[in-house]
Amino acid sequence: MKAAPAATVAVLLTASLAVSGTLAAPAAAKSARPLTDFNGDGYADLAVTAPGGTVSGLAEAGYIAVLYGSATGTGTAHPALLTRATPGVPGAVEKYGAFGRTTTTGDLDGDGYTDLVVGDFTAPAVLWGSPKGLTKGAALPAPTPTPATGDINGDGHTDLVVNSTDGLQVRFGPFSRAGVPVSTQTLTFPDGDNPEALAVGDMTGDGADDLVTTHSFDDTQGKSRFWAGGKNGLSHTSRTTGHYTTGGIVADVDRDGYGDLIAMQVSQVSEDRDWEAGTIRVVYGSASGPSTRTAKITQDTPGVPGVSEAGDHDVNSGDLFGYSLAAGDVTGDGYPDVAVGVPGEDIGRIRDAGAVVLLKGGAAGLTGKGAQAFHQSTPGVPGASEEGDYFGRTVLLADVNANNRADLVVATPYEDGAYSDSGAVWVLRGAKSGLTTTNITSFGPRALGAPEKEARFGDDVAR
User: Is the peptide bond before 143 cis (omega within 30 degrees of 0)?
Assistant: First the structure.
């Protein structure tokens, strides 16, 4: 059996992505993230990480493959392969350096081009966008292990939020080309209580992004906490969301003007955790932040394909419905939809083959109505379901061909190519009715001329 996904669900995807919709829908909250467009041509670009890739003969030095969008979709003919050996990329190639283990995107310097932030404890960096795409970069203050971006003070500039060993930091933009922020805010926590995961988005509808943090200590999970953003940055006090959730995204799925938290729900005591089957908790936003209006969605929810299957309190068993999450308007109706990774899904008798479920947003919020499911045994999807593939471990919704409908990017780092765990990516097109298997793009390291052996290509897709 292949290597299992990371054992800590708390390091899940932490940022929201939503695509602008039709004028007929109500105004959405400012929780929608801007297009990830490194070269400014209007098409969403992909930065796919391969932290296990061998570079300059050094195992697990890591690399990032950048693929630019176009009218025909994601192009694989001319990818840019970035490593710490690439001219202009700060830092040095190191064995086990895992370049690209954590990433995020945003226009840090305010020049209109999306930049790529590469997190690291010792050598974090930002690579600047330009008309030619990602070019030279700058070192960022260390440590920057788990970066996220948003506009925390609502001034129109992208800010960098970092869960560092010094505490929770907000580094306010615009950044200089030397990687220096305008100012920094730091919130400290008691020992052992630092946030494990971050979700950024405007839940209060005031134009400033807010923050939801995940906390646990020893074997006890804490309720997630809400920190309001505003002109002075993050509030110094927080309140709970009322639920034990981890990671998550923020997207205004009912377009009422308030961003909603969508996250995986867990149990308070880790020994009793019930997330092996998987439960998504939707906490709807309000003028004061997380409201008492919530929804619980599982594979037993009417309309959701599949059946909830709990494991034996082992992260390597059970469906893991909600292990990865992403938001974007797939149908073009103006409401963000949510892609749900189910990497532990069994396909027939094939254990942990994995799947992705698309839940559709609407005026009533996020429900199971019209939900779709895809896996490697779905007709039209390239490849074949295999034990331990964990298809759906990483998901992203991005409009790669600029047709005003988000496309689904599924990255599976444990897919086997010529070597085990070389990894692969699939791109399914968005359409009025939802996702379609027409014109699917799929590729792995070999197709890009990139290092393949145990590369774990698709460990993350930057957002």
Answer: yes
pLDDT tens per residue, range 274-314: 445 689 999 999 999 999 999 999 999 999 998 887 653 34
Asked whether 350 and 386 are in contact (CB, 8 A), the reply is yes
The DSSP-derived string for 158-203 is -EEEEEETTEEEEEESPPPTTS--SEEEEE---TT---SEEEEE-S
Going across the sheet that includes 80-82, the strands are: 46-50, 63-67, 80-82
Quick one: DSSP state of residue 34?
A: P
Contact 450, 63 (CB under 8 A): yes
Give the max Cα distance, the chain: 55
Placement of tokens 């974007």 in the chain: 328
- Report d(CA 81, CA 40) in Å as an integer: 19
Q: Which residue has the tokens 């030619």?
A: 132
The position carrying tokens 């943090």 is 213
Of 190, 145, 151, the C-alpha closest to 171 is 151
Of 374, 346, 356, 391, the C-alpha closest to 438 is: 374
pTM (2 d.p.): 0.91
DSSP tag of 4: P
CA distance to 177, 293, 321, per residue, from 369 (Å): 47, 19, 17
Residue 372 neighbours by CB under 8 Å, 6+ apart: 305, 357, 358, 434, 435
Token duo for residue 74: 């994601």
Exposed / middle / buried, residue 377 (Cβ in 10 Å: 0-12, 13-18, 19+) = middle
The DSSP annotation for 190-257 comes to -TT---SEEEEE-SSSSSS-EEEEE-EETTEEPPPEEE---TTSS-S--EE-SS-EEEEEEE-TT-SS
pLDDT (0 to 100) of residue 162? 93
User: What is the C-alpha to C-alpha distance for residues 181 and 403, in angstroms, rounded to an integer?
Assistant: 35
CA gap 371, 43 in Å, rounded: 26
Predicted pLDDT at 332: 96
Q: What are the beta bridge partners of residue 168? A: 163, 187
The amino acid sitting at 50 is A
Residues 31-73 have pLDDT tens digits of 456 789 999 999 999 999 999 999 999 999 999 999 999 999 9
**Residues contacting 74, CB < 8 A, separation 6+:** 46, 67, 68, 400, 427, 441
Alpha carbons 166 and 186: distance in angstroms, whole number:
8
CB 401 within 8 A of CB 289: no
Q: Are 455 and 415 in contact (CB under 8 A)?
A: no
| Single-letter amino acid, residue 237 | T
